[in-house]
Amino acid sequence: MRLCVCLMLLSAVLCVSADSGLRRAGQFVWDAAGGTWDMFRAYRDMREANYKGADKYFHARGNYDAAQRGPGGAWAARVISDAREGWQSSVSGRGHEDTRADQEANEWGRSGGDPNRYRPKGLPSKY
């Protein structure tokens, strides 16, 4: 009888732990999907604004918005930023210095820094 009770309690604890882990994993994936959307929205706004000198602002804003969702959003922002900068530095010809400055803005936003630090004067308030 005691063995049966112990096994039932152990099973209940394991199920609760697994459920909690599953919930956290699901939240991570949800946050990552939302962070991906935030990064896309910042990229779309950057293209729409087509405003000289606003590149770093949109980098910081996309990373900031994504990271505010939690660990999954911050992860998505880092992966997307690193992939984009890796591709851009090898294809665009803008050089190492531009990539470094973009990554600085990315990290600033991801770490919770105010994206307006990079906001150029005259950028419409819509953004």
TrEMBL record:
Record bears the keyword Lipoprotein: no
SMART domains, A to Z: SAA (SM00197)
Pfam families for this protein: SAA
This protein's UniProt keywords: Acute phase, HDL, Signal
Composition bias type Basic and acidic residues, residue spans: 94-103
Disordered as annotated region, ranges: 86-127
InterPro entries: Serum_amyloid_A, Synovial_Prolif_Regulator
One example of a Gene Ontology biological process annotation: acute-phase response
UniProt signal peptide: 1-18
A GO CC term attached to the entry: high-density lipoprotein particle
Similarity remark: Belongs to the SAA family.
Role description: Major acute phase reactant. Apolipoprotein of the HDL complex.
Protein name stated in the entry: Serum amyloid A protein
Native organism: Sapayoa aenigma (broad-billed sapayoa)
